[in-house]
Design a protein that fits this description.
Elements (H helix, E strand, L loop, with lengths): L3 E3 L6 E3 L26 E2 L3 E9 L3 E8 L4 E8 L5 E3 L6 E3 L4 H20 L9 E7 L2 E7 L3 E3 H7 L6 H7 L1 H12 L12 E4 L4 E3 L38 H17 L6 H6 L6 H4 L5 H10 L11 H8 L3 H8 L14 H9 L7 E3 L5 E4 L5 E3 L14 H30 L34 E4 L8 H7 L4 E8 L9 E4 L6 E3 L2 E8 L4 E3 L8 H11 L6 E6 L9 E6 L2 E2 L5 E3 L6 E6 L18 E5 L46 E5 L1
Parallel strand pairs: 18-21, 23-27
Antiparallel strand pairs: 1-2, 3-4, 4-5, 5-6, 6-10, 7-8, 9-10, 11-12, 12-13, 14-15, 15-16, 17-20, 19-21, 22-26, 24-25, 24-27, 28-29
Helix pairs in contact: 5-8
Amino acid sequence: MGERKFCYKCMEQYDARQHICPVCGYDENTPHDPMYIAPGTILHDKYLIGVLLEYNGEGASYEGYDISAGRRVFIREYMPINLCTRVKNKPVISVNYNNLAKYKAFMAEYTELNKSLARLRNNTCINTVIDMFAENNTTYTVFEHIDGVKILSYLKENAGEISWEQVSKIFPPLFTTIGILHNAGIIHRAISPDTVYITNKGELKLSGFCVSAVRTADAGLEYELFKGYAAPEQYSASSSSRQGSWTDVYGVCALIYRALTGCMPVDSLSRLKHDDLHEPCMLDSRIPQNVSRVIMEGMNLSGRDRIQTITELVTRLFEQPSQIKSAVDPSLAPVPENFRDNYENRQNYASDPSMRSDMQYSGGDAAYQDNYNGESYPYNEEEEEYRYEKVNTVDRIKVPIIIGILLLAILMIIAVLIFRILYDPADDTSTSSGRSSVSDNVVDGTTEPTEETTAKADIEMPDLEGKFYELSKEKWSDYFVLDPTYDYNDDYDNDMIYEQSVEAGTMIAQGTVIKVKVSKGNESAIIPEYSGLTVSQYKNKLEQAGISDFNYQFIESKTASGTPNTVIELQVDGKIISPGTYFSNKEGKKLTVYYVSEDSTGNQYVQTTTYEYVEVVTTTETVATTAAPTEAPVTTAPPTEAPVATEPPATEPPATEPLTDPDPVDSEIVE
């Protein structure tokens, strides 16, 4: 039998002489995104990296294989794309100095989140954490492979929906798990058909855990919100948009809504403008009315008015209809023992249709039929099942008195209006008609404006500080207009609002113009290396370094030759400069980037200046095995050296399988 190799998609082994997997049809020559780890890479001396499965603002997930244990796994890599980049042709991550603090802070949160999940690894509804380790200047989490499909695919295979009976059988363990997560201080914020799997055994598993900034708009990372399932408070990072267990209640109810009706719920952001979400029972009459009503209460746009906890949600969902009606209508409640002798009231109830309300007398064996659910309640002269109260004299005359008072008030209003119409004040003018009439039209400056002079102040001004201008402008375009002024600010990222003319919480009129100050980025930055990079790649490098498009320009070189569309030279004020040089954004000088023409021919351009990135190097030590520490490479300092942080990243690392409590990650910045 010949040499065999792994398929990077299904992780099955096949003949090494073949290029296409006979099991899943994956072609090993399929190109991969250079920003992510190349398939075939070995991590931690035991994990084989396969194809990229998905990525978001926190990091990337890969198909993987545990070589030592001989099983498939999922591997999650912390890699916030707007804070770092991948070293070319290597799995190592390079972090720009300006983003170092954010990178470390979010990595600490990522590590703590996955440590908490590791402690809950015995819960069958959570995708089990197998291992966690630090490598390549970042942290990796290894999850158990799920033998199943996303519930969205499952629903599509079942005509798009399932019945309440099916939901009530397979969902309760998931409800319990979410309650346990909340007790552990973990809010998922992304419960949806894309993050809930159903296994081959018919069990639900919850995945898709991320740091909170990825599940909240404008919170510092590229956010990922699932349309139709994200609660309205997730679309704002302001302190007034509180998130908590009620945020997951919204997601759970939206997921049940989708499972029962086959329809994706209307996005909460759209509902804030015009709420046209239909009750589930209106879309499918087979859905119990009490379940439908509870789902709608769980999807209330106001977090304060929404069902607050999973425990409350489950209790409400599985309440019996008779219990709910008794709470709504006290007349349906059981009668105490001392009401058994109220035979006369019972006879009046049976003979007077006006007193029956939603209950009707069916005759025959003397039973009362419930119009809501068809249940019959036996009537017996010996035992009184329901209480019927007599109507006293006050109640009989109370309604006519109220109606009479209302009619009298209406007549008085009509009389006043008629009097004003018939009596014209213009006829009662004084003899001093020669007095100037100009003063009659003078309006005192203290007079309050009317609806004709000002719009109704019916919008509460949100807190825009720390939000991105372009996103905020689009989000609030229907409510007010933003008038930006741009300036450099070291405390705020490019395009981030750092001051507003109207204080948050102030009531403003719709269409009001709000002046805001928007950051153009840092006042200074270090020019990054460009060797071998294309125009688009180097633009990304410049943005990550803190040099915005206000301060650079790309010019095609007609004389230089080399690899087409690659950067070959940098200039400021006509002088050639090297990567690593200090650059002031505020001075107003332009960084000119020359690149090779697309139709370039001739000798390759030779770049002589070299520059190494400042990298965050992490080392780790496992619990079960002792590995020799890897010495971090020392880079050469650039011509003009930027200050380097010496505080280690606040992260906590991994542990080998079986995972207990990850040990602290020892990290250092190597210059």
